[in-house]
Design a protein that fits this description.
The complex is a heterodimer. Chain A is α/β, with parallel strands linked by helices. In chain A, 19% of the residues lie in helices and 28% in strands. The longest helix of chain A is centred in the C-terminal third of the chain and has 12 residues. In chain B, β1, α2 and β2 form a beta-alpha-beta unit. Chain B is globular and about 65 Å long. The chains are: A alpha/beta, B alpha/beta.
Chain lengths: 165, 160
């Protein structure tokens, strides 16, 4: 599979931080170290030839129970995924990091994109990951007084927390 | 003999008047709303049964149609709207979500609006056909006609 310009540039810039690269239906996924995520997306956004200037999504996957099947990057529980898009290249790129339960924090992307604010609040609301330097890390979808993080795999399926009227 | 008078009972005539002038408040939150719109517009024409006036103020309506999914965050809003409606009032739960939570058996969705407010008629279906909504309206009209008319409701609140 022919690598895109964005991926080639990223490999040049971050040779040691990239853990794994995979392709799926023509889209590239880059697993990168957590500490390097902010610098990597900043590079992709501001590099003259690339201009991945649209943050499409930030989301998260809970891999509880699947840690043993993952070979790379230890056995960390959460996977945070960023989707970027470049108008200049008409190309999408996906960056992933792994986050462990004991150190559930991620560098916030709000200094780079305003819309990261709500996307990160949603990840915090559903998975309980803390975003460093986030200006307003509150729940966004669930109501006040809701306990726990409902999209974590260990949240009880039948647990109900009716909102007090 | 020329008949120029009729006899009836007060309860009966009040029920007759009420059942043919149900002002509705549609609390539409999800896809069942499409079927409701179809029922309310010319094709199925809910106005044939005297429930044609859609009042978008709870204070002027007496039939609350809960159409669609109600989640936990929305629950206080629905409760407030129900409380704002003046007596007498009736509630129709339209669609599987409003009846029981439907397919959304999860942390976010209220498992049936009867957890929050009392319901008179339940309409199953995902979504229900407009004919089902009309059928439910006829059932509600039957209920309105046959129930004991609560016309001294003002006294209840003033304590007379």
């Amino acid at each position: 599979m022919k690598e895109s310009l964005g991926l080639r540039k990223l490999k040049e810039k971050f040779p040691n931080e990239i853990i794994e690269i995979s392709f799926h239906f023509g889209d590239e996924t880059i697993l990168i170290q957590r500490e390097a995520l902010f610098e990597a997306v900043k590079f992709l956004k501001h590099e003259e030839e690339l201009n991945y200037e649209l943050l499409l999504d930030i989301t998260c996957v809970d891999l509880l129970g699947l840690e043993d099947t993952i070979q790379t990057a230890g056995k960390d529980r959460f996977e945070v995924i960023c989707h970027l898009y470049s108008f200049k290249l008409n190309h999408r790129i996906r960056l992933k990091i792994r986050v462990s339960e004991s150190e559930a924090w991620v560098e916030s992307l709000t200094p780079l994109w305003e819309n990261a604010n709500w996307l990160e609040r949603e990840v915090f609301d559903m998975f309980g990951l803390k975003f460093k330097n986030h200006p307003d890390l509150r729940r966004i979808l669930m109501y006040e007084g809701f306990e726990g993080y409902p999209l974590r795999k260990d949240y009880p399926l039948k647990k109900r927390q009716p909102r007090t009227l | 003999m020329k008949v120029n008078f009729i006899t009836t009972r007060f309860n009966h005539i009040l029920g007759w008047a009420r059942k043919f002038s149900l002002f509705q408040y549609p609390f539409v939150t999800a896809c069942c709303g499409m079927e409701y719109m179809s029922a309310a517009c010319a094709h199925f024409d809910i106005d044939r049964f005297g429930a044609g006036w859609t009042r978008f103020s709870p204070r002027q309506s007496d039939m609350l149609l809960v159409v669609g999914t109600v989640n936990q965050k929305l629950a206080p809003v629905l409760k407030k709207i129900y409380d704002q409606m003046t007596e007498p009032k009736w509630v129709v739960a339209i669609g599987a979500c409003a009846v029981s939570g439907g397919i959304y058996d999860n942390y976010a969705v209220v498992q049936g609006i009867d957890k929050i407010i009392s319901v008179d008629v339940y309409i199953p279906g995902c979504p229900p056909r407009p004919e089902t909504i009309l059928d439910a309206l006829i059932k509600l009209q039957h209920k309105v006609q046959t129930q004991t008319q609560d016309w001294k409701w003002k006294d209840k609140f003033t304590g007379k």
